[in-house]
């Protein structure tokens, strides 16, 4: 079957196979290609000596394999790249961590550092509930306005971020409004809702609503509805509503209050990041002076 | 030299021997390291098998294809550690079958999402993500609050997982159904049993409804992700793995 012959044009032997009159020249693989193959094999040998690669039976060494002559690990590489950024931050952090909030706000360089760090941490950790721009969502407070549930000074904000609201921490902010659906009749709740709406709209209200409010609600929300930040009782007089401002929303909230929850961040973020966040949130628009 | 392959091609027995040798090398390289699998798992305390309710949530996670957009692996790279926290350890997914490391992040990595958001947030966000994150492209999964979690057969999942090495005890399997219901209920009478069988359990009514739904299961699962391993005690010294 084989019929090797020399090709007239090129002077190269054929493979000896013939398909419908077509013959194939028996050219070797290109030399450059063979050269690259051999180089990659040599490269692989060198690589396996320098970097961790071969599994071993002893269980010694990184992940139970050879360690490589350079002692390279992904963890070391991470540590090196972190060291670089830690060093760059350290020149600010050493001053930032020891400075009070007032000092930071008075020092333009430190303030810019805190805002940048806070903005970055905010996007990952806070924006999911409070919105990328801090506008909040139904049940998640807007951080741009000056209506604060638990106080709007930097120290108040710092306390809230550290320990959360109704979170699993001893020092968490905690308030619980009773479910008045079990205490008031439907009519009474409607009257109270009308009275509460009148704080911001100035509309008419049934006198029974005011009586009930003064008896049952004013202790936390204050007689004129301005609320009490020490108890986490929202301001009812400013037309800014946490769970909606229609009468239906108010009746629902009075009957069976929703109690939002904010995690305590002291176990997830380091103390310095929480301080940066406090300054950043304070800067968003509604921050109050001490 | 370039014609020497002819002798192999013309001799079928010789060809067969070379084929067997080549495949054996490939097989050994792929298979032998599996016998040393335990050396790749770092010694870290705290990682336990999923509770029955968390396991049901894991099943929902798989069924809904969450892995299509969310990975569960914080890689040891600076920007990832900055954003998500401590890099993932192999030990943290050793009881996942299959693991959910993933290679595609349309949404964020979820390896450390546990405890990051409130249960209410998860309920609202899973039903309609854009209500909380307007720029999100995640679809809503509103049906999860309406479907009861399939807990009657969850013990069979646990038996299957035990066959592939997840150390569920007989007691855990026998009590799977009551444990699952206890975890999704506020102050359940069966809570003590659940806590005696599993460490560090979040037990509460996750979705706020009286029935135990797939939403309860999914949130129970999400809230435990990345929280089991006691990472503060884990020290990687960079070069040498301490013996186990």
Describe the structure in your own words.
The complex is a heterodimer of chains A (290) and B (244). Chain A has 290 residues and is mostly helical. Chain A folds into three domains: 1-70, no CATH class; 76-171 and 262-283, Orthogonal Bundle (Cytochrome Bc1 Complex, Chain D, domain 2); 180-255, Cytochrome c-like domain (Cytochrome Bc1 Complex, Chain D, domain 2), CATH 1.10.760.10. Chain A is built from ten helices and two strands. In chain A, strands 1-2 form a two-stranded antiparallel ribbon. In chain A, a hairpin with a 2-residue loop joins strand 1 (14-19) and strand 2. In chain A, helix 4 crosses helix 10 (271-283). The mean pLDDT of chain A is 89. Chain B is mostly helical. Chain B has two domains: 5-39; 45-231, Orthogonal Bundle (Cytochrome Bc1 Complex, Chain D, domain 2). Chain B is built from ten helices and no strands. Chain B has helices at residues 5-9, 12-31, 52-63, 78-84, 119-127, 154-163, 170-174, 176-183, 191-197, 214-224. In chain B, helix 3 packs across helix 6 and helix 3 crosses helix 10 (214-224). The longest helix of chain B has 20 residues, at 12-31. Chain A binds chain B through residues 28, 55, 57, 59, 61-65, 67, 71, 73-79, 81-82, 85, 124-125, 127-129, 131-132, 137-140, 258, 260-263, 267-268, and chain B through 2, 32-33, 36, 39-40, 76-78, 81-83, 85, 87, 115-121, 124-125, 131-135, 236, 238-241, 243.
């Amino acid at each position: 079957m084989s019929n090797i012959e020399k090709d007239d044009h090129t002077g190269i032997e054929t493979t000896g196979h013939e398909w419908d009159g077509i013959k194939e020249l028996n050219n070797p693989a290109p030399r450059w290609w063979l050269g690259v193959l051999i180089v990659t094999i040599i490269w692989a040998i060198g690589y396996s000596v320098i970097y961790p690669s071969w599994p071993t039976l002893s269980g010694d060494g990184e992940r139970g394999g050879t360690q490589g002559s350079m002692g390279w690990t992904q963890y070391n590489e991470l540590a090196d790249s972190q060291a670089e950024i830690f060093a760059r931050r350290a020149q600010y952090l050493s001053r930032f961590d020891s400075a009070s909030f007032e000092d930071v706000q008075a020092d333009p360089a430190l303030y810019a550092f805190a805002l940048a760090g806070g903005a970055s941490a905010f996007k990952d950790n806070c924006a999911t509930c409070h919105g990328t721009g801090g506008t909040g969502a139904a049940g998640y407070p807007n951080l741009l306005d000056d209506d604060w549930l638990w106080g709007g000074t930097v120290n108040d904000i710092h306390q809230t971020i550290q320990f959360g609201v109704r979170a699993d921490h001893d020092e968490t902010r905690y308030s619980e409004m009773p479910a008045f659906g079990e205490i008031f009749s439907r009519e009474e709740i409607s009257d109270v809702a009308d009275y509460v709406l009148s704080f911001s709209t100035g509309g008419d209200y049934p006198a029974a609503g005011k009586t009930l409010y003064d008896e049952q609600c004013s202790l936390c929300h204050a007689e004129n509805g301005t609320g009490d930040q020490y108890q986490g009782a929202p301001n009812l007089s400013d037309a800014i509503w946490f769970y909606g401002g229609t009468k239906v929303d108010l009746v629902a909230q009075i009957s069976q209050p929703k109690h939002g929850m904010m995690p305590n961040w002291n176990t997830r973020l380091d103390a310095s990041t929480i301080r940066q966040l406090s300054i950043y949130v304070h800067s968003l628009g509604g921050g109050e002076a001490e | 030299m370039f014609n020497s392959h002819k002798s192999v091609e013309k001799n079928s027995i010789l060809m067969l021997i070379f084929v067997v040798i080549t495949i054996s090398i490939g097989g050994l390289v792929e298979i032998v390291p599996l016998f040393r699998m335990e050396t790749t798992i770092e010694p870290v305390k705290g990682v336990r098998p999923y509770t029955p309710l968390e396991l049901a949530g894991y099943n929902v996670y798989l069924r809904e294809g969450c892995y299509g957009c969310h990975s569960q692996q914080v890689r040891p790279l600076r920007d990832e550690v900055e954003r998500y926290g401590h890099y993932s350890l192999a030990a943290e997914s050793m009881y996942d079958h299959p693991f959910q490391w993933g290679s595609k992040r349309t949404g964020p990595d979820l390896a450390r999402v546990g405890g990051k958001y409130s249960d209410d947030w998860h309920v609202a966000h899973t039903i309609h993500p854009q209500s909380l994150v307007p720029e999100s492209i995640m679809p809503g999964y509103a049906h999860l609050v309406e479907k009861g979690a399939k807990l009657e057969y969850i013990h069979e999942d646990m038996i299957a997982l035990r066959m592939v090495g997840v150390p569920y005890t007989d007691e855990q399997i026998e009590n799977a159904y009551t444990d699952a219901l206890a975890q999704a209920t506020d102050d359940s009478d069966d809570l003590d049993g659940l806590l005696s069988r599993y460490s560090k359990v979040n037990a509460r009514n996750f979705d706020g409804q009286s029935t135990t739904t797939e939403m309860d299961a999914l949130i129970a699962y999400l809230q435990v992700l990345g929280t089991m391993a006691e990472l503060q005690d884990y020290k990687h010294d960079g070069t040498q793995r301490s013996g186990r």
